[in-house]
Each structure stands twice: as C-alpha cells, then as structure tokens.
Specification:
globular; binds NADP nicotinamide-adenine-dinucleotide phosphate; two-stranded antiparallel ribbon; alpha/beta; 8-stranded mixed β-sheet; 155 residues; 10 strands
Length: 155
C-alpha cells in the first residue's frame, strides 16, 4: 500500500532551489508523527537536501546511480515492496508524480502562503478520485512562518 505526504503553498509549490521554501516546525512534527516507524521512499534530489537518514524509518532512495550511504532501489522494486507493506512516498516532485497512480492515501499540508520563484510542485490531485476525509487548521506557532491546514485524503 502506498501513502503520500507533502506540504504545499496555496499554488501547489513544494520546493525552491532544492529545498523547502519555508521554516515550518509544526509541519515537520506532523511529518515525523505520520512517517515514524514506516518505510519511506524519496527521490535522490530530496535525499541530497537532507542531513542524512531520517531516524526510526527505513529510508529508501530512488536513483539511477548506485550509492553507498543509503539503500537505493528501482521504481519496480519499490512497487513490489508496496504489495506487502505500507510505503510512504515523501517526495519530491518527480517521485510524487511517479507514484501517484499507486497511492491510496495522501497527507497534505497547505502552508498558507504564496512562494515566489518556486521550482517544484505537488502532483495534481484533480480528477484522480481522492476524497477529503479530515481537515484541521492550525495557527502558526513560535517556530512557524505561516498558518497551515492539515488535510487527509483517500481514494
Ligand atoms: N514540500 C514538501 O513536502 C517536499 C517534500 C519532498 C521534497 N520537496 C522538494 O522537492 C524538490 C525536489 O524534487 P525534484 O522533483 O527536483 O527531485 P526528486 O523527486 O526528489 O528526485 C529526483 C531524482 O529521483 C531519481 N528518479 C526519478 N525517477 C526515477 C526512476 N524512475 N527510477 C530511478 N530513479 C528515479 C533521479 O535520481 P538520479 O538523478 O540520482 O538518477 C532524479 O534525479 C526539492 O526542492 C525538495 O525540497 C518538498
């Protein structure tokens, strides 16, 4: 089973210059809570943006080049893995689009802002058959730049 988690601005932006375009501690906490103990899969560029493996989770990276600092699998191998366990797709844009047809559940955070000059975007959920089953608005805390809305979608 595949789930997906992403945070996007009001226009669907998720990234800029290879990184997240905001400081949003509450969303990182939410990400940690949702992904903890799970298998997570990410693209090589998202891996490059991290300081290292995210602890407490099986970290898998999709890349066409081998590497020795993290487990690298092919798309086909990850699809096979998703037949026997829950795999959480954590980005970025290329990897979200690749897995969207396989995804049953999406954890989406809307960061209430409009990023200028974004260069990575969330997958379009339009016409994909997802239904909103939960929504919670949260005001920015002391370590957040913006208000946010946590949404839970399934199909
Ligand atoms: N806001 C959020 O929730 C969120 C979450 C995650 C990431 N992001 C942002 O998204 C941006 C990165 O997204 P991106 O689209 O540029 O890159 P990405 O999806 O993280 O990684 C792309 C890389 O994945 C590998 N790849 C793609 N398709 C593959 C396939 N079929 N088989 C094997 N490997 C494959 C390739 O690696 P190789 O070149 O090594 O072959 C490709 O260059 C960053 O700005 C990041 O901060 C945002």
């Amino acid at each position: 089973m595949f789930s997906m988690i992403f945070a996007c601005d009001l226009n669907g932006a998720i990234g800029k210059d290879g990184d997240l375009p905001w400081k949003q501690s509450s969303d990182l906490q939410h990400f940690k809570r949702v992904t903890m103990s799970k298998t997570i899969v990410m693209g090589r560029k998202t891996w490059d943006s991290l300081p290292g493996k995210l602890p407490g989770r099986r970290n898998i990276v999709l890349s066409r080049s081998p590497r020795d600092d993290v487990e690298v699998l092919s798309f086909e191998e990850v699809v096979k893995l998703g037949e026997s366990e829950e795999v959480m797709v954590i980005g970025g844009e290329e990897i979200y689009n690749l897995f969207l047809p396989h995804v049953k559940e999406i954890h989406k955070t809307i960061i209430v802002t409009e990023v200028e000059g974004a260069d990575a975007f969330a997958p379009s959920m339009e016409g994909e058959g997802f239904h909103l089953i939960g929504e919670r608005s949260v005001d920015a805390g002391p370590r957040d730049e913006h208000n946010m809305v946590f949404q839970h979608w399934i199909r």
